User: What shape does this take?
Amino acid sequence: MNAESKKNRYARMYEQVKELTAPIAEPVARMATLVAVLHHKMDYFFWTGFYCLKNGELLVNAYQGPLACLRLKKDTGVCWAGINQQKTIVVGDVHDFPGHIACSSLTASEIVVPLRNKVGEIVGVLDVDSKRLNSFDDIDAAGLEKLVDLIYL
Assistant: This one.
């Protein structure tokens, strides 16, 4: 998919998710809807889901794809890096990422986007894995960041 097509797809998904989630303020319902749209519209998304902070632990939440790790070891892996660095993390090859947590041996690349509540505190992350190397770029980062902002509107 070329850059312009990808930008347009993210724009269409944003409008779709915004419309679908408008009647419901519940964050988990919004997360589930966003994950379903992303997972089925982006063919290179192998695992798509949220990990949320609960009592200092990072626990799996709404997701689609193969079984996930239920709890991620504190301060380890790409998800915790996104939280600790308070920014989107794009990893072209997870095997080169120190401390990568391999919930699936099929994962080759990953993107993690911090999830912030209404007051701007990080409460979790959107985590997307791909079976292909270097699947994610700045267009994915910008598109996913905008979509994740819909969770706590």
The two ends are 30 Å apart (CA to CA). The chain has one domain: 3-148. The domain at 3-148 is CATH 3.30.450.40 (Beta-Lactamase).
